[in-house]
Amino acid sequence: MSNTPDDSSGPRQHLVEVGVAAAMALLGVITVIGSLQVGTGWGAEGPKSGFFPFWIGLIIIVTSIYNLVRAYTHGSRKLFASWDQIAQVLKVVLPLTIYVGVIPWLGIYIASALLIAGFMRWIGRYGWPLILAISIGLPVIIYVTFEMWFLVPLPKGPLEDLLGL
Amino acid sequence: MESIGDLMAGFAVVLSWQNVLYMVIGIVLGVIIGVLPGLGGANGVAILLPLTFSMSPTSAIILLSCIYWGALFGGAITSILFNIPGEPWSVATTFDGHPMAQNGKAGEALTAAFTSSFVGALFAVIVITLAAPLVASFALQFGPAEKFSVFFLAFCSFVGMGKEPPTKTIAAMMLGFALAAVGTDTVTGQLRLTFGSTELLSGFDFLVAVIGLFGIGEILLTMEEGLSFKGKAASINPTVVLQTWKELPRYWMTSLRSCLIGCWMGITPAGATPASFMSYGIAKRASRKGDKFGSGEIEGVVAPETAAHAAGTSALLPMLSLGVPGSPTAAVLLGGLLIWGLQPGPLLFVEQKDFVWGLIASMYLGNIVGLIIVLTMVPFFAAILRVPFSIIAPIILVICAIGAYTVHNNTFDVVMMLVFGVAGYLLKKCNYPLAPLVLAIVLGDKAEESFRQSLLISQGGLGVFFSNGLVSTIMGLGLIALFWPLLSSLYGRLLTPARPT
Fold first, then answer.
1. Facing residue for A142 by CB, picked from B402, B421, B429
2. Residue B308 contacts by C-beta under 8 Å, 6 or more apart in sequence?
3. Can you tell me the mean pLDDT for B111-139?
4. What ipTM describes this predicted complex?
5. Average pLDDT of B393-405?
6. Rounded to an integer, what distance in angstroms lies between the CA atom of residue B363 and that of residue B358?
7. CA B116/CA B132 separation, integer angstroms
8. Which pLDDT belongs to residue B189?
9. CA torsion, points B459, B461, B464, B466, in degrees to nearest 10?
10. Residue B415 maps to a domain
11. Nearest chain A alpha carbon to B397
């Protein structure tokens, strides 16, 4: 799917690529450090635990530096995405982050109900009856399917404890 | 031939009411998944995998592989009706499929796509039936060095034959290996790369990575386009189907060629996507109507769909017989087999005959059932995409989160799903391939294990990988695949004299 943004402003492609390559190089460094912690040489049973990841980490660092330089010098000067598009993406990322953060406390059923209700209210601007129907209906369907039918427990929160589920 | 007898036994296993029911459910679920963005083939199988733990492995793999077929079919629906490729390999289908829909020929396009997919998949399944046992018996002679060389070949194919820059492919792949290395070292039992964190004790699970990278990442990419899907209406009635079927045999040559391209690319882990593009390109050059491709030529739908399905199906051949998956979805299925305690590879054909031949038999039936279902239910599936975004998007997110959670009953995995999701969005936009990353996460431990065992045997010498004819050949093929772009451009320059431009 190609989506060339029009003239509006936004972060440039080559800069984002530089950032991504830098992040990967950092992960490579972490891998190398972790490998050195467990030893990268020869042990009693052959190569030590750190042997394989050490070289993997090095290759990551080398290729990422190459990608970084290449992105900086030859990278596309076009927009990575316009700020509008990024705003669209954030409309999913931010609610999702809150959702994921809240699950350990509220349990997945309440959290899902809130997520669906939130989307339907703020983005869809639906009326409350439909919102309640779906945002409560779906978690109930999930409960029946997963907990009762498949016997797969999902994280629960205070409400479920109150209801004795 | 022994294979036919085994195949018959496989059919017997498959044709129980329960398994046929699973087939139907799987296909319907698969098409729905293939139609919805963010829940594509690999992701859908990954989410549903933990739910199948309570079923018998044979029923589970039938369900999952039918979901896979369903998703393959589903991708064509959105490509043709909405110009949104449901899967990467459906992109080539949009070139002629959507114009056909715009010309009012949606029914013909859909029929052509589904029938071609069926033909391609069937061809591949026959190849698997005949070739898999041979490859498996051959692979029984593999030692650690040979096993590693097969992994090496697989990964080099991605680097050399992928469309992304090799350095990015290598970086992504190595990142996958690094992620796979976190946790317990399978050889010595030591903990590594956990940095004292208890959550990382079990490492990164490939299922969570797949749901994040392919699921959430895909949704985020779709988000850029805005919040609605506008598509063409479609209905298929029997007249249209029969008319199209009468027209299709004209393109048998294209079909056959596409089957071969697809099988070849599916077996070497290059995958369904390059197969579909390559097949479209070759068909365009070979056809008399080549210059009309792009404006709604039915042949332009037949070529990529046949190839993509042949490739997607034949990706299961190396997965079953060698334990090396040819595509991310095959990788997820492989992971599933490992979780059920089945060891894909040559021993599977010897020790688990019922399972393997049951699976292969289900591939035949699954495709037939699939074809019937999609032909009859297209309006229903197309209607799903009309559910407003603000309702369907959170539902998809909830399903993904549940999928991530049920892998290890761990909320940390849901957090990781989010992280992988954002990473997947960034990586895709920066042109890093995700398939080698996922394959490396799935295969990392096994590849490392065979590497270390080989070195142990040779006491540290890398020469072990060239110590006999078989392993040298495979390593050689790997090196050729790795340097393919260089080699083919050299070859091209040698052959063509300079032309005036």
1. B402
2. B72, B89, B90, B92, B93, B117, B120, B262, B272, B273, B275, B276, B279
3. 83
4. 0.87
5. 84
6. 9
7. 23
8. 76
9. -170
10. yes
11. A96
